[in-house]
Amino acid sequence: MQLLGFSASQVHPLTSLEAARDFLAGNAAARFVWADFSIDEVMAAPADWRDSLAALSGAPVLDLHLADATNAAHPSYFDTTNAYDMVIFRKLTFETSRQFAEAGAGEPAVPTTSAVNPTVTAAGAATPQKPRRRPAGFLPALAKIDTQPVTFFVFDSVLATVRPGQSRTVDQVRQRLLELCQAPRPQAAASADGRGAVVHGMRPPSRPEDLMLRLLNAMVDRYLDLRAPLTRQLDRWQRALLSTRRSFSSWEGLLDARIQLRRLENLSEEQRDALQEFRDSLLDNRYSNTESGAPGGDEVLLVRLNDLMEHILRVLAHARRLEDSIESAVQIHFSAVAHRTNRTMRALTLITALFMPLTLITGVFGMNFERMPWLREPNGFWWSIGLMGAVIAALAGVWGIGRWLDR
């Protein structure tokens, strides 16, 4: 469990839920508290966790939402109650990011020393194992896109996150907030009218929704980082499909690549739908507050949310574009195969057309008659060979004149 308290200008690390309650109750400048939990901590004692969160936020979490937060297979989703909003967002796992980073850098060279898959003999000496041979045209499969859900409970003064295990993205955002907000602020030079210049990048989040959008933005950036390695891998697939030197044999890997791209497309659509519902809820609350005379919602929050949804749409568009590229490469591959087949059949047809008259001539002279022209002539053989050559020359002349007329 990690706790952070946010005031007007600082981020305060907190040690316990009691300290978080004291921070909200005894600090006039306190705005909200971020409580970060793992699924194991929640599932160890669900009732105690819900009671502790209710004591901090002032409202209990529904049983259905608690079950959704501990479901590792739950899709991206949004729901709201009178006391809080719940957003479930599926983020990339660290293993997926590592696999795509390695795939994007290219396959490592296989060393020839005994360090590659050594096998130990009875005498205890390690002998090198031969690398696995791949068929011609083989390409490694696309790295698997694996995700895990992160649940956000957005209260008025508390943001509670529930995630499975460690998250590099969440840890980086927390560390960045601590570094930016606890570091001494640089002295900005005064402008000509005497007012101090604005220092950007030092403002802590003002609301739980603001912090949630910052976390979601960092998670979506991980998806955007997949564009370059995905493009490089699929470029290799396209070059292999269109290569004329060797036949393509990695059809199973190509099918798996299409499945992974379709999965990425479905993930992006679910994320977009969840954030769209969250945006609609924010707009409804904003208009309700405006009609009742209360101040409207934060425009900056809506701008940040629109920017986040635009990033998700970019991931979705890129996945669809790559899928269309694979589809086009497959169609071009089959067209090229059909073209090569047609050229082969054309050559065979040409050979057949040339030898059919020759076969007829040899068949005629092979008949078992006693009296035939040129059969007993001393130069009959050469006359038949000349006849065959004349037929070939005549056919070649006819084809040449036909091609010249076609031009």
What does the model show?
The chain folds into 2 domains: 2-99 and 136-182 and 207-337, Beta Polymerase, domain 2 (2-Layer Sandwich); 347-406, Magnesium transport protein CorA, transmembrane region (Methane Monooxygenase Hydroxylase, Chain G, domain 1, Up-down Bundle), CATH 1.20.58.340. With 407 residues, it is α+β, with helices and mostly antiparallel strands. The chain has 11 helices and 9 strands. A hairpin with a 3-residue loop joins strand 8 (147-154) and strand 9 (158-163). The strands form 2 sheets. The protein has a 7-stranded mixed beta sheet, with helices on both faces. Helix 5 (94-104) packs across helix 8, helix 8 (227-242) packs parallel to helix 10 and helix 9 packs antiparallel against helix 10. The chain is rod-shaped, with a radius of gyration of 36 Å. It starts with a strand and ends with a helix. The model is unreliable at 107-129, 134-139, 185-201 and 290-297 (pLDDT under 50).
- C-alpha Rg (nearest Å): 36 Å
Oligomer: single chain
- The share of residues in extended strands comes to 5-15%
Q: Tell me the total number of β-strands.
A: 9
Percent helix range: 55-70%
Rounded mean pLDDT is 76
The CATH homologous superfamily of the largest domain is called: CorA soluble domain-like
Number of helices: 11
The side-by-side strand order for the widest beta sheet comes to 2-1-3-9-8-5-4
Straight-line distance between termini: 80 Å
Structural class: alpha+beta
Order of helices and strands: EEHEHHHEEHEEEEHHHHHH
> Which spans have pLDDT < 50 for at least 5 consecutive residues?
107-129, 134-139, 185-201, 290-297
Under CATH, the topology of the largest domain can be stated as Beta Polymerase, domain 2
Name of the CATH architecture of the largest domain: 2-Layer Sandwich
